[in-house]
Amino acid sequence: MFIKKSKSDFNIKKINNYYFSGSDSLSGSIKVPGDKSISQRALIISLISTGKTIIEDILDSEDVYHTMQAVTQLGAMLRVHNNYIEVKGVGLGNLVTPKKPIYMGNSGTGTRLLLGLVAGSNALVTFYGDSSLTERPMDRVLLPLKEMGARIMCDDSNKLPITIMGARAKGFTLPIDYKLSIPSAQIKSAILLAALTARGTSFVTEYKKSRNYTEKMLSERGVILKNKKINKSKNIISINGTSFIKPRNIKVPGDPSSAAFLAVAATITKKSSITIENVLHDKFRLGVFNILKKMGASINIVRLEKNTCKIIVKSSKLKNFNIESSNSSALIDEYPILSIAAACSEGIMVMKGLGELRYKESDRFKAIVEGLEKCGVDVKSLKDNIIIKGRKKIKGGCTIDAKNDHRIAMSFNILSLITEEPIFVRGNKSILTSFPGFFKTLQELGVISLTHEKKNI
Ligand code: S3P
């Protein structure tokens, strides 16, 4: 596809032309592709490891492809095989200054984590991205990275393109004691990656839990990293500067965020029963399934070996309830698809504390409100809250502009499974960033109304 350059995938070229037009039932068993967060970290951490890492089942998508190209430009040697890739790292402190600027496409995770990594190096790198990534705030990572000694060159907006000179080009990486004002795994990870070369111990305080794969993967590779839990949500991470990252092979489990789209599809359609195999079993990331269960969805999570599970989902009648802002970090990527579930449920759902949604691949706050309204759903926003009144019949019959945002595109395609008239999504191509097989997978689950749209939408 992207990494593996297979020609067999039917939907790459025509993806912009697909839409769903109603479906009664989904059935069968499928696997979701690899977790995006883990795939990107696996590449980035392999780059600074001393020696060879084998990464199995990496997500084959556009975002991961751009991160893969980036780590190659920074000095890693890559070999792509059928179901695994081999990465020969340069070792910590040996990043190469690329000859050309690095293009990150749509990948916010890849960009922010690599900014952190370069901040602690002696390399000089320019990053740029597509129109969506260029609009995303970067000051949230640049601020701590400057404090650690990195030099940044960009315009006043603090957005891409950004040129960064690592702290070790003209000095050394300073340890930091940083308190995260935004609960973000990307900011946390950028600081931790920069802190690897600091002389001494750095501290990152988080006030809301966020995904912790950078911490786990670094610890497993010999970095001295500790968590000091102050209370349920406050945690202080300490990390010691080091000079050596030992390589460790990794098998990437399926992405729970991709699984959520399929789970909602099965829940809102009639007579559906599906099994989603090989999903990463991480309580934090499974939050969306617990919310759906609380809404009345028939969802059974069966834990399997190591860190995976299978998720069995059946059609269900859902009831809305309020989702408090304390959940917002755990559900950050799932609000678009949860809003689709809410639109099809009985009663009112208030989703609270969604301010961060404004800074995702698109302004997701606006995209949810405007998109649902266009489809005929009663929806309102109040400050950082979205209020959705579910209904039995949703009209659809409109075009939704995904604005380069994969999760908005997938969400409105799923809604089209149950609307009276089909919804056309402009910009399905964005789905290639995280779940290139989205349409194919739904087709395998029996969505027969997959149609080639000839009209110019
Ligand atoms: C991610 C963290 C989240 C999430 C993104 C992936 C990561 O972003 O929305 O899709 O892999 O670290 P924030 O850290 O900005 O909340």
Please write out the topology.
Elements: E1 18-19, E2 27-31, H1 36-47, E3 52-56, H2 62-73, E4 77-80, E5 84-88, E6 102-103, H3 108-119, E7 124-128, H4 131-134, H5 139-147, E8 151-153, E9 162-165, E10 177-179, H6 185-195, E11 201-206, H7 213-220, E12 225-229, E13 235-240, E14 250-251, H8 256-268, E15 273-280, H9 287-294, E16 298-303, E17 308-314, H10 335-343, E18 348-351, H11 364-374, E19 378-382, E20 385-389, E21 399-401, H12 406-415, E22 424-426, H13 438-444, E23 451-452
Parallel strand pairs: 2-15, 3-14, 6-7, 10-11, 21-22
Antiparallel strand pairs: 1-23, 3-5, 4-5, 7-9, 8-9, 11-13, 12-13, 15-17, 16-17, 18-20, 19-20
Helix pairs in contact: 1-2, 1-3, 1-7, 3-5, 3-6, 5-6, 8-10, 8-12, 10-12
The structure holds shikimate-3-phosphate.
Shikimate-3-phosphate (S3P) is lined by residues 37, 109, 184-186, 189, 210-211, 332-333.
